[in-house]
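Hi U.,

Before I forget, here's the chain from the pilot set. I'm dumping it here mostly so it's searchable later in email.
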Amino acid sequence: MRKYANSLPPRVQLCVLVAICAYTPRIEFTLVAGAVAVSATCGDRHVNGLENCDDGNRFNDDGCSAVCSLETGYMCDSSVRQHDRVNEIGNIVKWTRDNSSTSNVATTNPLTLTVLATKESCARDNICRHEIWQADLWAALYNIGEHNATNVNTIIPPRGYYCSRFCKETFPAPPGYEFKTGCYPTPKPRCVRGWTDCDSNAYCLDTQSGSGYTCRCDANFFVSCASGTKCDRSGIELIFNLTVAGRDTPQNDMRHSVTNARDVLIQHLFFLGYIKSTVSTPSLIVEGVLDYPVELINAATSQGEALWRIILRIPRDHANTTKFETAGLFNEHAILSALFESREIAVQEAYRCSQHRQRACSHDIDCVGERVDDGKCIRVPDVSVRFLSAGGSTSPLSVTATGFGSSVMSVDYDVSYAAFRVRIRLSHTLSVVCACVVICVCG
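Structure:
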């Protein structure tokens, strides 16, 4: 019988050799500390020996390399690296409270970040991407040494690289800011979250700096408190049409003059008691027309003047409604024009019916009522006074009448009936017939 040199058949020997070739040896490190030797195996999720991380595998590009060292861009949670040594292994940090104070309540003593002598090392769950914390950039936003927005008396960490979640999870952001994902504070969107005192009829805008927000009443409502904190649904709207002389005067100069004229008019309305000085101010009236600036209507009238429009909107509670209803001041063209120091500015004239000052006319016949002779077409200032409710706007109501030379004489809204009263003149041959049509508004 033939004997084999190593007592194994060739086939069996081949299998053994294959098994030996397929075996991968473990990567081990040995750290000698005095007389004690500690063995470390990369990939076992335990940080030992020369390892500074161990994520349970030996792959690269996942934060911890195949030889268990932290890769570029990664560090260990609860540690810090110098701001100018981002690629060097840092030290473990710990929040501590100084209890040496004489305060009776230890929790009021400030928290400080202590840098320990222990070098950073971490297992899988504590490996994170690092991010710069620029303490010098954000320190001014904190009330250092005082209770901040979260009522935690904390001294902010020094400048350096930390885990991207370290800032969000371990100390508060500056007042009005928040840490969303890293160490860069971002402004809190207070308007979106409803953390404002804006009126429900106002819109809110967060400032770009993140230091606050601004409120402004919707254009259809009336400003009754500054900065959009109260917007009334009803009020009085005045429309003044002014003429400005001077063909060669630049438009911007005209706009400046008309704006000054508006301020003079507001002051006079306060002086005469049309606007209550006990509840309102000129600045509040100006805020109420931010969406209604002075407007050029016609650059050249037939007399070579420019026609401009001024709009004022006064909350009902801020106005003396009796004075506005009688409209004594707004019927005197000479008195109104005399308010303005500049001779180049005058109140535009208009022709209205004597018994209904909101009705425009050109002849006495346009002012007929139940009797033919009960109205006259007179010269008055081109001023309109409107009582609006439910956030009414200045958009005019477009109503026309057709057939037999008919025309609309006036359109008025009757609050008591919640309807429009439309007066129509029906002209046919030599007869004139007046009719009143009530149009109800259904909500």
